[in-house]
Amino acid sequence: MHLNIRPAGPDDLPAILDIVNHIILTTTTNYSYEPESLADRQAWLTRQQAADMPVIVAERDGILVGFGSYGPFRNKIGYRFTVEHSVYVHRDHHHLGIGQKLLEELIRLARAQGMHIMIAGVDTQNQGSFLFHQKMGFEPVAHFREVGFKFGQWLDLMFLQLYLSE
Question: Which domain holds residue 132?
Answer without folding.
Answer: 3-163
